Amino acid sequence: MATIERRSPVAFPVRAVRSTKIGHWTVVQQYTNEGEGPWLIDLSHHPRWDLQDADIRRCKPFPVNVPVDPGTCTLDRGLLVNRMNRTQCSIWHLLGDTPQPPADPVCTETTDATALMALAGGKVFAITEKLTNLDLTDPGPKPPFLLQGPFCHVACQLVIAQRRDLDGTLLLACSRGYGQDMAHAILQAGEEFDLRPAGEDQWRNLLKQIQNERSERF
């Protein structure tokens, strides 16, 4: 029986120091010369689903509640649920493991159809100002929150997970076919801020920080 190999739509032009297997994915844990940030991290191997239902609040494919209002997000136990509109949510599994896929027919897996990246660290929102007209530094909504619209002229879901002035963490999802060009454009825009690719280890450290900050807030 043939072994299934799943490949990310994103490849960074730097050498991997350490890699591991997660499910059928080869995942880079660390790249050479990652620096102190900001970082661009490929998260495309993290499982993702689309949830659609006329009465979406009744749906609970995972033990996490669906947010009430469009644009709001729930982050709980590594699961990020993004309320997109009246009948639709996206669900991103941000931990580094392979969860059991939901049996609920209202859930459709989108992992292989999309690319997911994290842009994190210092001056992140100075970088994004070059790439989108969306106001990612609006002081009104509190992280995590969702924006939908053009980033590098591509339709994207953008979740602001952390924000401190121009520093923070942004998660970005787009159609798979745009993944490589999106990564190239972000790295090019971040050159003046010493933006570098980073691996899964850096992401897990960031996720712990985000979750700890939310625990302290609530």
Structural summary, described in words:
This protein has 218 residues and is of the alpha+beta class. The relative contact order is 0.21. The chain has a single domain (13-218), classed as Probable tRNA modification gtpase trme, domain 1 (Gyrase A, domain 2, 2-Layer Sandwich). It is built from three helices and 13 strands; from the N terminus they run E-E-E-E-E-E-E-E-E-H-E-E-E-H-E-H. The longest helix has 18 residues, at 200-217. The chain has helices at 124-128, 179-189, 200-217; strands at 16-22, 25-31, 39-42, 48-52, 73-76, 79-85, 88-93, 107-109, 114-121, 145-151, 154-164, 167-175, 196-198. The chain is globular and about 45 Å long. The chain is 16% helix and 37% strand. The chain has a six-stranded mixed sheet with strand order 10-11-12-9-3-13, sandwiched between helices. The model has no long low-confidence stretch (mean pLDDT 92).
Quick recap of the structure?
Helix content is 16%, strand content 37%.
Count the DSSP helices. 3
Just give the CATH class.
Alpha Beta
- Overall shape: it is globular
- The radius of gyration computed from the alpha-carbon positions, rounded to a whole number of angstroms, is 17 Å
Run of helices and strands: EEEEEEEEEHEEEHEH
Give the total of domains.
1
Distance between the termini: 49 Å
**Largest sheet properties:** 6 strands, mixed
Q: What fraction of the residues are assigned to beta strands by DSSP?
A: 35-45%
Helix content: 10-25%
Q: Please name the CATH topology.
A: Gyrase A, domain 2
How many DSSP-defined strands?
A: 13
What is the typical, i.e. mean, pLDDT?
92
Widest sheet: strand order? 10-11-12-9-3-13
Annotated CATH architecture? 2-Layer Sandwich
> Can you say what the CATH homologous superfamily is?
Probable tRNA modification gtpase trme, domain 1
